[in-house]
Amino acid sequence: MSEINILGEAYKKAKHKVPGHGPRNVQVLKDALIDIDGEMESEMYGKGNVIDDFQEKMAKYLGKESAVFFPSGTMAQQIALRIWCDQKGIKKVAYHPLSHLEIHEEDGLKELHHIETILLADKDSVIQLEDVAGITEDIACLLLELPQREIGGQLPEYKTLEDISAYCKEKGIKLHLDGARLFEILPYYQKSAEEVCSLFDSVYVSFYKGIGGIAGAILAGDKAFTEESKVWKRRHGGDLISFYPYIVSADYYFDHRVGKMNQYYQETKEFAQGFNQCYGVSTKPLEPVSNMFHVHFEAPKEEMEEILASIYEETGIGLTSYVREVTKTTSYYEVSIGDLYAQLPKEDVKKVFQMLDEKMRSIKTL
Amino acid sequence: MSEINILGEAYKKAKHKVPGHGPRNVQVLKDALIDIDGEMESEMYGKGNVIDDFQEKMAKYLGKESAVFFPSGTMAQQIALRIWCDQKGIKKVAYHPLSHLEIHEEDGLKELHHIETILLADKDSVIQLEDVAGITEDIACLLLELPQREIGGQLPEYKTLEDISAYCKEKGIKLHLDGARLFEILPYYQKSAEEVCSLFDSVYVSFYKGIGGIAGAILAGDKAFTEESKVWKRRHGGDLISFYPYIVSADYYFDHRVGKMNQYYQETKEFAQGFNQCYGVSTKPLEPVSNMFHVHFEAPKEEMEEILASIYEETGIGLTSYVREVTKTTSYYEVSIGDLYAQLPKEDVKKVFQMLDEKMRSIKTL
Fold first, then answer.
1. Nearest by CB to B108, which of A234, A243, A248?
2. Burial level of A1, CB count in 10 A (0-12/13-18/19+)?
3. A235–B112 CB contact, under 8 Å
4. The overall pTM is greater than 0.95
5. Fewest CB atoms within 10 Å of the CB: A94, A355, B256, B291?
C-alpha cells in the first residue's frame, strides 16, 4: 500500500510546513520548562499552587466564578452535561450532529452517563435560534461548539448567540460552550472571552489547539458547578496526582499565543483567498472566521494526493499530510494556522497556488 | 488552627525526610527529560513510538500479550472490571472492603458503570481462598490488591494466590490484579512480575508509587481485552493526544528503580524493627512484605503530633507530615521507603527511636 503514503512522505520531506506551530515533539515541553524552577512543587490531586494559580487565571480570563483543570475536553464536557442533567432531573441534551461528543468519543456520553441526545440543525449548517426553538422535548442543556469544527470552523452571527442564550435562560435550559477553539474566534467576533462566556452557563476551553500546549482543558462555571465537576473528574479517573507538565505548558503557551489570535485570523483569511482563486478549489467557510477552514477539491482523494505531493516537491511547501474523501469525485482537508505561517516564503506560497490552479485545470474529469 | 500544623511545619523544616524518593517537584520531570532528544515526536492519541515502545516493554515485563498506557489506575481498573462484566453479562464483581475502588474513587464504578460490588474478607485481613469460595452469587471478576495498602500493605501467602487463581479459573471468574505496588512486593514473594501476573487475567501497575514517576498506569492482558480497553479509555476522556511527559518519566524511573525494590524492602524491614522496639508503638504488618507499612501508636493523634514534632526538631529527621486518628486513644501513619532512606544518618535514626521510646513511656495515659 505504498501509494497511500505518497502525500504523507512528500509532506514529511517538505522544507516548510504550513499548519500549526511546528512539530508536536518533546521540545515543546522542554521550552515550557526552561524558566520553571526545578524546586517548584507539584500539585497533589488537584491541590497546590501550580493548579490553583492556573485555574484562577483562567476563571478570571473567562469571566467565570471558578475553573477546573481537566486532562481532556472529552471528560470535561461529558461531566458538564451530566451535572446539568442531574440538576434538572432530565437526561437529555441537544447539540450539533457533528459535535465532538457525537462523532469522536465512542459514545461516552451515552455509554457512561446514559444521556440522550437531540441533534440540531442540518449537519452542514450551524445551529440557529429556530433550531433551538423547534425542540419539542424538555432538555437539560444545549451545547454550542464555536466554531463548528467539522464544517470548516463556521460560526453563527453573534446576535444569534445572544438570542439563543436569552431563549435558553427563559426556558430554563443550561447553555454550555464547547470552546475548544474559543481563543481563535475572538478576533472575528471582536469580543473578549469574558463577553462570549457570559452568554453561557459553563465553558470548556482547550490548550492544544490554537494555544499549542501539550494536552489539557479547563472547565469553568459557577463554584457549585465546578465543585461537582471535581467529584465526577475523580469518578472518571481524571483526578491525577500531578498535572503540572500539562499545566506549566498550557500556561506558557497561553501567554505566548493568546495575543496572536488576530494575526492567525488575518493570515488565515489571506491563505484561504489563495485557494479560492484556484480552479475547482474552494474553502469552507469561504471567508474564514477563525484560524481554520476546510479546503474542498473537485477531484478525488487519490488524484489530489498526487497533485499535492508534486506541488510540495516543486515548491518545498507542505500543505497537509492527508486528504479525505467526501464523495468519489470530491475531497477535502483541514487547515489550521499558527506560528509557522508567518515564516513561509511568500513567493513559494504564491507558486503553490499557481501550480494548484494549473494542475486542477488540467484534470480531464473536471 | 495553628496547632494542627505543628507536625507539618516541623516536617517541612526537618533536614532529612524518611519517606519516598524526594520532593515531588518539577525537577523530577526535568531529570527524566535530560537525555531525551527534543526532536522526539509526541505520540498522537495512543499511536506513535513513544507510547508503543513503552507499552510493548511493559507487556513483556508483565508477561502479558498487550499493554495500554492510562492516565490513572482509577480509570484503568474501572474499565478492566467493566470489560469482564460485559463479557460475562453479569454486572457484579468482588474485592476487599478497603479497595481503592471502594473508598477513593467517589463510587465511579457504580456511578459510571453500574457495577455491583461484593466486599470480601474482614477489612483488617487480606482475602483468603475461603472468602472467595464463600461467594454465593455469580460474579464476573475478582479484584485482588497486592499488597493491601490500607492495612499497611499486607499480602496473602503466595500459595493462596495460586489457589485463588485456580479456583477462579475453574469457576469462570476473571481475576484482576490491582498491582499499584506490584514492583514493590516481588522481593518478598521472590517471584518475577511475569510469574505473579500469570495468575491473573488482567493487571494494572502504577508508575508514581515505588517507581516515583509523575503519574500514569499500565493496564495489561490479552489483545482483545486491551483493544476493548482503548475504546473505554476514549469514552472516559482518557485518550489524550499526548501522554509523553508521563511516559518518558515512567520509563526513566522504571529503569532507575525497578532493580532497587529489594533494597527498599530490606531497608523497610530494618526501619520497622526500630518502631517495634518502642513502647506503645507497633507496625502493621509486624514484618513488612514490601516497601511500606503502617506505624500504630497507642496515643491520640494530637499527642503524637507533639511528640513527633519535638523529635524532628531534636534529630533533624522528619518521619511524616501527618498522623491519623484510629480511635480517641490510638493513631497511625503510613511509611513508604524509597531512595531517601539510604541517605539518612543512621545515628540520628537511632536517636529517633530512643526518643520515641522515652516519650511514649512518659505518656501518663499509657
1. A234
2. exposed
3. yes
4. yes
5. B256
